[in-house]
Specification:
Elements (H helix, E strand, L loop, with lengths): L1 E9 L2 E9 L11 H12 L3 H9 L19 H4 L4 H7 L6
Antiparallel strand pairs: 1-2
């Protein structure tokens, strides 16, 4: 949220009123056991090719775009950004 002040004229006096506007919202979802196991598999992958295989085997990439409290309100796409092959797969036009 962003704070701003608004001028208000009441009874011949000028005062300022503090208001807030929403800049963006983050939807936090509860992680399922399947999602937690998938994330654990990504963390214990020994090579980048193993990691890439796990990402490519997912039928729906939306799991990587969800924000979880367990990831400090982040998502897996930002954590996987170091691997260009995984990022290319997740951003492919097949999933528009």
């Amino acid at each position: 949220m962003q704070e701003y002040e608004k001028q208000v004229f009441a009874h011949g006096k000028k005062t300022f009123q503090t208001n807030f506007t929403t800049l963006f919202n983050v939807k936090i979802v509860k992680a399922t056991l399947r999602e937690l196991l998938l994330f654990n598999s990504l963390y214990v992958s020994k090579t980048l090719s193993d990691l890439n295989d796990i990402v490519n085997d997912q039928p729906d990439p939306r799991i990587f775009y969800k924000s979880f409290l367990e990831l400090n309100c982040g998502n897996m796409t930002s954590l996987l950004s170091f691997d260009s092959r995984s990022t290319k797969f997740l951003l492919s036009p097949d999933f528009d």
